[in-house]
Structures are given as C-alpha cells and as structure tokens.
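agent: user wants the structure for N-acetylgalactosaminide beta-1,3-galactosyltransferase from Petrolisthes manimaculis. delegating to structure tool.
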Amino acid sequence: MWWCLAAVAHDHCGVVARVWQPEVALRYQEEGMQGDGDNDKMFLLGHPSLARTATSEYVLALLPDSPLPLQHYPSQTHNRESVSEGSDRILCLISTSPKYHETRAQHVAATWAPHCKRAVFLTTQKDPLLPDILITPGANTYNQLWNKVTQGFEWAYNHRDEFDWVVKADDDTFLLVENLQAAVRGLDPLQPQATGVHLRTWDRGSTYLNGGAGYVLSRGAVIKLVESGLQKHQCDHNLSLGTGEDVNMADCLAYLGVELLDSRDSSGRHRFNIYPPQELVDPRQAHNIRHLWLKQISIFPYKFGYAELSDEVISFHYVDSQSMYLLYYLVYLLNPQGNLRSYSPSPLQPTPQPASLSKSPPVYP
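agent: tool returned. relaying tokens verbatim.
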C-alpha cells in the first residue's frame, strides 16, 4: 500500500498532502528529498518508523492505484429503511486504541459507522483517520476499559437529547444499524433497558452482555447509569479492575434495576453474535473445541449453521478489515434479483427467567 507523503500536490498523487511533522521533515530535508511521489515512496520504505508516526498524526492520502482505497462506501440500503429521525436514533460508541486505528478502526469508519446517527470512537489520541473521536485519557489497557467506556457513556448522557439508544461496540465489530433500529422500534427509549448477547460469568454465574458483540442501552438506562451509577457512585462497590468492562457494566445495570431484554429473534436465534459469519454458518464448528467455552457460558443455546443464523442479525464480532468491506458489500450494495422475502423483525422481549440480572450487589470471592 503506497502512501502519498509529498508536501506539495502531484498529479499522480491525487491530493495535496499534509504539512510535515517536524522530526520527519528534518530527516526528509537532510536526505535531500525533493518532495515528489517517487522520493516519498523511497523515504517511506527507508524509514517505516517515521512513516508510521506521520500516519498516526496526519491525513495521508492513498495513491489512486492503491489496492485498498480508504473511501466511504455510499450509503445505499436497497429497500432497507434508512437511518431514522424517530424514536430509534442510534449513537454508536466504538472502543479502540491508537495501535488499532489503521488496522481496524478506520475500516469501521469507512463501512458501517456512517449508518449510525453518530459514531464516536473512544481512544486516547487524535487521529485524522477517524472522523469523530472522544479522547479518553489513560485508558488503553484491558483493565482500563471500564474508564474508557464510562467516559463514552458520560458523553452520551451530555448529548442525550440527540439519541434514543446507545450501542457500545469494538473496533472489530460489524453492526447492522438498520436491524438494530428495527429491533428497538416501538420500545420506549426512556425506559431503562439494555440488550445484547447473554453470557454467564465463570465464577459467579451472573448474566452479562458481551462487549465484543456489542450491547445496547436505552436513553433511560444511560441516564440511570450516569446519574446514579457514576455521579452518585452507586456502582463503585461492584467494580473490579480485573474484570471485563462488560461484566462491570452488567453488575452496575443490575444493581440500578435496568431491565434486560432478550435479543434473540422469534425463532430463538441470536441477533448479536460473538463470532464472524464465516464461522457461524459452518455447522462443523459446532464440534470445534475452540467454541466449547461459549456453549458453557451462553445463557441461551448457541448453535452453528445457516439454519441457526438469524436473518435479523444485528452484529458480528472478530471481523477483520477485509471481511468488514466484504460484509458491507453483501449487506448494503449487492442486490440479488428475485429475492421476495419480506422483512418483519420480531420485537425485543423481556428476558425469561432465570436469565434476568439479579438486582442485589454481587459477592466477589
């Protein structure tokens, strides 16, 4: 993948490139570079560390003949409902970190993120590769994810009049925003509710919503989380830094009395998915020992194969950058002829017992 690093515009480069970062500019001048495309290529190959620094600090334009031009696909939905202004306005909070901006997050920004009412990337550094960033200081490691995510929900709380539902996703999540909108349509966003794929913790057996597949909070749940859980510190006694942010979130929401909704479709198939589609559609994966953990902790049966994959899917997890573009094409751009299936999504329902969250504070060993 060739990057255009020239400080001036060139026909073969396509755009006017950025202003040099001082240390890169100094090295560039010391080596007698003239600011044309060929010299830029040589410089990049000779100094990959400097080039990477420049990439994370400035907008770098890909050459026209790059194998993967980073342009946003057009928002074509082909008979799917477009992003609504009604009671299903979706804010997407996407957790990432600087080391994944280029390999993951920018591909989310180029595919499904524009389908959200607004998509905000939670990270610790500004980066022109990402269009809308919320800086979350000192929150790069796994043990700091709770701080990162709660900063995102505090931002959502401050903008709560702009959104009805908030989904937290990862930088390797693929989200079908319109399917999420259809699932929550008709629900009152002011009611404190949450949904996602339901798992059980290994140690306590309590229910939580997996963060990688994405979990969704209503505006009412966000208000409760921030005003009671964070500002009044009612969830502080539940927190464990060695625990995943999704487990901490579930414990907090349970203590605050947030209702947990069953995210499965009317046939009991999962709409939020922990794996990418290429694994889920293969029935042989049911016997793969790698998936044994999921069968053991999933609240509801987790099955593999085409027949078990919902046609109302909302999310996939562990989606690499190439699959991100492939999925976007198949979902939004491909228009197969003769497909007469109607789309009538099943509404979210209260979670059947005993999978509902306990409202009492959990006891940690």
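agent: one observation worth passing along. The chain is about 30% helix and 15% strand.
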